[in-house]
Inverse folding.
């Protein structure tokens, strides 16, 4: 009985959070951005989030000029690698930005309700990162 009740509560919670995305007219990418990125990159994406004063190294970069600085082409692969964390941020190899690929993988590992296979985990991670890229592409200055 306990299991059934918690399963129901979990599924209501899940539908509830998906509903919140819809209710606010947000895409998945914007939802993820607001949850995970605004603290440093700011609501505007210009790198003016509230926690930037506490970072040790580089300031979080302006994410609205990624395309402008890349010859008017949005650098999909580089941004994917940057978010996933498979590429270090700077030439000196330091990185203040969290490794989102690993954080997203942890999210699936913590989900006791649904056992993610390795392939499903990678799908989950890839979908979130692509949704973030779609959102970032939509806030470019040109
Ligand atoms: C804890 C603060 C912090 C958070 C949260 C954060 N970032 Fe960053 N981000 C940085 C910093 C600092 C840099 C500059 C490189 C470095 O030092 O890591 C950066 C760099 C980037 C870059 C590279 C920009 C360029 O010009 O190459 C991208 C893309 C990016 N972040 C996307 C994101 C996305 C998407 C999220 C949310 C999933 C996010 N960041 C969350 C701190 C953060």
């Amino acid at each position: 009985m306990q299991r059934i009740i918690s399963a129901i509560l979990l599924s209501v919670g899940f539908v509830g959070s998906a509903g919140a995305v819809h209710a606010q007219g947000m895409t998945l990418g914007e939802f993820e951005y607001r949850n995970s990125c605004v603290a440093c990159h700011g609501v505007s994406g210009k790198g003016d989030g509230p926690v930037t004063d506490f970072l040790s190294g580089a300031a979080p970069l302006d994410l609205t000029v990624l395309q402008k600085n890349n010859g008017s082409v949005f650098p999909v692969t580089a941004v994917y690698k940057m978010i996933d964390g498979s590429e270090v941020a700077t030439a000196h190899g330091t990185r203040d930005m969290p490794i989102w690929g690993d954080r997203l993988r942890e999210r699936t590992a913590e989900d006791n309700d649904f056992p993610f296979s390795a392939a499903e985990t990678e799908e989950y991670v890839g979908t979130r990162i692509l949704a973030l890229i779609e959102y970032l592409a939509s806030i470019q200055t040109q």
Notes: The mean pLDDT is 80. The two ends are 56 Å apart (CA to CA). Residues 100 and 113 are 22 Å apart (CA to CA). The pocket of heme C is lined by residues 36-37, 39-41, 55, 57-58, 60-61, 63, 66, 79, 82-83, 89-90, 95-98, 100, 132 (CB under 6 Å).
